[in-house]
Amino acid sequence: MRQFSQWIFGGLIALAVGLWVAVWPQQVAAATPPLAMAKDAQPIWPAHHPLPTSSIELKHLAQAGYRRAQFLYALRLDYGLEGAEAPLNAMEWYAMPAQAGSTWAQIKLGDLYFRGRGVPQSAEKAHDWYERAAQGGDPLGALAAAMLLIRQEGPAEQWPRVVKWLQQAVQHNIPLAHTALCLMGVRKLETTGFDQELGLQSCRQAVQKREPFAGYLLGDWYWQQADEIRQDPNQLADGQEVKKLRQQAMNWFAKAAAMEVYEPALLPSPQMRLAQKLPPHWIEVLEPLVSAQRSSVVDAAYRLGHYSLKSDNRTQRRRAVNWLHKAAEHGNPDAQFNLGMAYAQGRAVARNMERALYWYNLAAEQGDLSAQFNLALLYYQGKWVKRDFHLARVWFEKAAEAGDPQAMDHLGDIYRQGRGVPADSDKAIAWYLKSAEGGNVYALTSLGDIYQAGEGVEKDVEESLRWYRQAADLGHRSAQGNLADLYRLGEGVEKSLPRAIYWYEKAALQGDALSQNWLGILYQEGRGVEKDLKSAFKWFKASAEQGYPFAQYNLAVLYRDGHGTPQDDRKARQWLLKAAHQDRSEAQNSLGVLFERGLGGKKSAVEAAAWYRRAIRGGSLRARYNLGMLYYRNRDFGSRREALQWLNAAYDAGLIEAETALARIYLSQRSPLFDAEKGERFLRSAAERGNGDAQSLLGVLLTFEKPLGIDYSEAIRWLRKGAEQGNAEGQFHLGYMYHMGIGLEKNSRSAVKWYREAAKKGVAEAANNLGTLYFEGNGVDRDVYKAVSWYLKAANLGHVPAWHNLGNHYRHGIGVGIDKKAARRYFQRAAKKGLLASQLALGEMYESGEGGRRSLKEAAYLFGKVAKSSRDGKYRLARLYLNNGPDNKQRYAIKLLTQAAKAGHPSAQYGLAAIYLEQEKPSDPVTQQTREAYQLLLKSRQGGITEADALITALEKRLPEDEKQTRMMSKPSL
Known about the structure:
The protein is mainly α.
């Protein structure tokens, strides 16, 4: 039996989706007038005769001349209810009642000519029969005549006739006629010249009569008006007007979608057949309009759901899912696909992959490309459903056969990687080529990869370059990055770092993490572009934030070293942790170092060891070395045996630093593993292999008697080698050798040079000594300001003597303004570390009240600490007690002063002599105490105490000539 819905709506309406209209047979029956008797009074139906139960009886009634029987018999022949379809016989039987005035027989004759069934197709004859029915007063005949002309899209002069027949149908209350006028108004304006406002009015009237197609047409018209305003380059888009029009569109879609989907029976009811009043869906020329009526409810629901799902309003999104459900349940593949997407992504509904698969399957079975591709992708990726490469391939193939380049590309991947099928390079390339013909950049890039690696084909870098360039020119970032790699390496093309940077930047700006990282490296190293650490930092950060572990490590190094960004161990640790969790062994090793040293966070030998071990599993040689050193330095944590095990493992793998570390262990005289011969062998081997650390260490050890013996010439040779390699230890010690003139001629300028290099690398002693040379003007022009600058650098590195030196500068205002409080702070820091000179200076400040409160108790405490090991402390403490009491400390003060004097302290000698002489008068005879005072004064004078001259002269007047000793004294140095 023929299904009318298979026929297409000619070229009349380019509908994106099928539409539906409700048809109420009762209304049609009520609106259709009963057939009048023909002039020859041909009988219509036997009085009180029921509808025959057999075709034989119906045929007898037809042969007896009953018009209704003739029509119904023709209908059965036409649609094969008597066996095979017999349109030619049907035409003979239709003709009889048609000639007698049966409008439905006339309409069906029009259908036969319209379709060309049993007769040659003739739109003109079809129109004649439809028009005869219309002239006979049948409004559906009028509608059929109008729709035939509409479908033919004839000349302009025919349109008044179309309007005439449609208005006739409207006057007879045929809702479908309102919809036809609506269609003319909103879709056929240019052809018909029909008044748009009348068309829109007809649309509204049709909607009032519950015609869904009219509601859909109105919604679509308002939506297009909004699009025209938004896209018109000649006028500024009015956002409010667009929003208003789209809201009107949604309102009309909602009216259409809210109507019921009417599915008419294939055959009319017996009562209608007896009344010879058939529904419009049996008029074949009306089939597209009727089909649109049926499908418009579904399609309006789909568009409501599709648009509302994008709303920011949560309630709107939930309603969208309801509309999509209605459309999807009535078979709309677009709605089924969108509903599948909603469930897959958890948009407006809870994520439910089972429901997503269900709706994707329904849409895919109907040929929806997007659904087929998504369904294949779910099975291919296996993230939300069980991975099934077979089903993935089946659906990719269906999408590919329909021309989807993405599906072709994935099929290429399947055959290239042998997923669910044996790997087949030929099939992979074939699918990639098909996809590439469709402009798929992923396929183009894959072809480039295949030829570059020689996968199943002969390696051909030039061919690879050709495919990469095509994809790169189309904007594919991975291809752009690959093309940049070829230019950077000079493979298949002349090496060009500027061209590499050009393509890396294009890919990087599109977010390609690998290209961003390479840009960072090139800017960091200044290759092909001026060195720019800030740009390097920018690109490393962009790549790292995308999770690329190499960039995360590179970014961490910049934070750790303070290159291109302020130094920040905390951030360095954060980024190293991210890279380490992605199994980057170099990051794991560096993270271990931070944990070991407590940089950027807590200090933990346990955590450090754990990260070193992970790095070792990843193949890091340096982590073996670091783990060995960690065990060696942490006696409570590791053992010497484990330390040697890991250091030897690193040494056996060729890590020269491990060889140097083993040398240090064996050469340490405090180590139970001390073995000078073995240590020297390791050390010389590492030094001769060019390790700067080993060279410097060897140089330093050769300046001591043990364990290697002094050899200044060799020491300087090795120190110079290490220093020239940039080793800070070697630079400092070479500077010291020049400074002190050890093993070579003293050369302060060379000392300054090497101290400066070491100081730049953070050697605090070098910075402090450099400050001293600037203060003294030794090897450089004297510059107390630069002296302070270098002292500050050393102080910031924790160098205790530098704190003391800064204390003196602030105390006396040398190179800085006088700041007694700052001086006291620096002295306090150094004093706490046990520096005697700072303890003395701080004691003096407490004694005098400089830079803060005066405290003789604090002064006495500090002087007392120094007195335990220094004559200066004894002298200062003695003087404090002598000058300030208390009385019970005077004898102790004399004792301290005597000890200091015996230790050769000039001021103590002078002071003690003065105390002795205070007890005598010039006229008193010379005693043993007088002679002791005289000897003390002579020693103090030799020590530079010029005040002793007056007392010496006075005493010599009292002493015998042979006891005077001033003539034997040498002049003190100035």
